[in-house]
């Protein structure tokens, strides 16, 4: 019996006896990210960055100058995971600011969730020049879409390997961890109370996405299925969909076709500015 099988068995048993207690422990685990160190290939870009501190202690890295592109990594991610994309944007004349999400890197906090990610984007945008684009990976993409519903303004939005709805992720995680039905319900409700928003509301089908966008996903993503990209694209009238044949959940960030598509979208919005910043 491996460790995960044992954990699921314990959760299944305790979840029937003390569902609220088990759900509480799982909620804390779910919302407490590990701070993972950068890989060797990320270190040169990290060394070339300017470290800046924004309001409320939010930490970020900055490269280049020009129209500002704001980046948000995914859960347990890092700004430098965007290394290939950052270099391409800087070479094309853009200034890039990449956030350490709440409870990640040097940003404050112990726990995080998609709502806190979205609020961090709003806080950063309030201190930066008008945003040419916001680019988010995984939960960073989900939070960027949510942030637009909370008032974030940008000329364009790029979502990479992002989920279309949070409730599916919560249920999937609870099921994977072996929680029985009653404990799963308690887990979802506890996450909702902590985040302050019903999970069912965190769904692209409920959003009004009124800015140009790009939805990118790899066919072989084993973390977030490519069907989520189709759902996002279907709900977002002014979006382009790029389905890559390979790249998984992380390697997709280094795909040259991603950089090409991002630069293409930014070129389009610079030639014909959207109403997002004019309103």
UniProtKB/TrEMBL annotation:
InterPro entries: AB_hydrolase_1, AB_hydrolase_fold, Carboxylesterase_BioH. One of its GO terms (molecular function) is hydrolase activity. This is Alpha/beta hydrolase family protein. Residues 69-253 form the AB hydrolase-1 domain. Keywords: Hydrolase. Pfam families: Abhydrolase_6.
């Amino acid at each position: 019996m491996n460790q995960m099988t044992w954990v699921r068995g314990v959760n299944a048993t305790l979840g029937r006896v003390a569902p609220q207690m088990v759900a509480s422990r799982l909620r804390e685990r779910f919302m407490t990210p590990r701070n993972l160190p950068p890989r060797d290939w990320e270190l040169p870009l990290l060394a070339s960055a300017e470290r800046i501190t924004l309001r409320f202690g939010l930490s970020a890295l900055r490269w280049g100058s020009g129209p500002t592109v704001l980046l948000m990594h995914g859960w347990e991610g890092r700004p430098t995971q965007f290394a290939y994309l950052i270099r391409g944007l800087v070479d094309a004349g853009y200034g890039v600011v990449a956030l350490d999400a709440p409870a990640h890197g040097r940003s404050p906090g112990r726990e995080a969730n998609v709502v806190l990610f979205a609020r961090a984007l709003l806080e950063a945008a309030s201190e930066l020049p008008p945003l040419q684009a916001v680019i988010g990976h995984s939960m960073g993409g989900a939070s960027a879409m949510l942030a637009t519903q909370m008032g974030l303004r940008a000329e364009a939005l790029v979502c990479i390997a992002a989920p279309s709805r949070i409730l599916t992720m919560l249920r999937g995680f609870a099921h994977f961890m072996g929680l029985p039905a009653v404990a799963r319900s308690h887990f979802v409700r506890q996450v909702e109370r902590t985040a302050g928003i019903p999970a069912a509301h965190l769904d692209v089908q409920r959003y009004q996405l009124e800015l140009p966008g790009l939805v990118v996903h790899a066919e072989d993503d084993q973390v977030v299925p490519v069907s989520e990209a189709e759902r996002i694209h279907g709900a977002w009238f002014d979006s382009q969909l790029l389905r890559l044949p390979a790249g998984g959940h992380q390697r997709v960030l280094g795909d040259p076709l991603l950089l090409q598509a991002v630069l293409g979208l930014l070129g389009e919005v610079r030639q014909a500015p959207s109403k997002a910043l004019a309103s």
